[in-house]
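User: Before I run my own analysis I want an independent prediction to cross-check against. Here's the chain; please return only the structure tokens and, at the end, one sentence I can use as a sanity check.
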Amino acid sequence: MPKYYEISEETAKRAKNANSYSDYVSGSATAGYRAMVDEAYALGEAQKSRVDPMYYEKIDGLLDRYARKLADNLNAQNAIDARVPSMLITGGGNFPTAKKEKQNAARDKNMGEYMEIKDLLHKIRSVGKGGISADDTLAVEKLTAKLAELEELQTLMKSVNAYYRKHETLDGCPGLSAEVVQQLKASMSRDWRKAPVPFPSYQLSNNNANIHRVQARIEELSSRSDFAGWTFPGGKAEINEGENRLQLFFDEKPSDAQRQELKQNGFKWAPSQSAWQRQLTQNAVRAADRLDFLRPEGGGSIRALQPYAHKAAPDRDER
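Assistant: Structure tokens:
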């Protein structure tokens, strides 16, 4: 059963009156919101039919998060739209240009937030399917393929925008099917901007952020063989590349305080390995470096012992 959050009908009415001559239909904002939530819940039920019941709780959590954040976003959108009436309503005389610019900036931010909320639907579709795990032996290859797709999309969006600016039409644009052209035209017709483009700047920015995120992950996973173990007072740290783990072996059971610090820094006790361990990443090395009782017997930082550290600029405290 879908859980709905409150939509301010009063704010929706003020937004409508500020931007249109037609009367506001009472309850229409709530109805529109609930239709979107219903669609999301239908998606969630379809996903549940495909995955193990162990994933149902996660899907329900994502659905509730979507419904809540969507209500907040739509209420904020209406509040923004109600701030400054459209020039079509007020006329051009003494139009508050500065306030309108601030309103447009707020609209851009709100739209960016909406795109992030919309991404929750993609996460729902992905639940139970598994992403690209660092433990996957083909993780780098899969991420490289994903990076190529993102970079190709970035290039396409830029070229389509450039084509539109030059020709003032999408007809005949290379790389676009007739169906995609119609979808982009429909999207632009709903855009409030004075000179809309097929792919707004926030879409380019979001995709570029994803490119940098995937690049960073590829770089980190590619350096897994560049880790080295060390000895510390009362134990040793070993690199288990087969398990993709940084493992800590103690001569004696760590104290209560030490075990607490290990847990707080992401290390877990693995009975099958007789070791405290966490996934092998540079973050794992940084976490170990924060624990004084894991410092190398010869002194210095743990990071300074890692081969990957010598391929980049040294930290300030190692210069």
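Sanity check: The CA atoms of residues 43 and 122 lie 10 Å apart.
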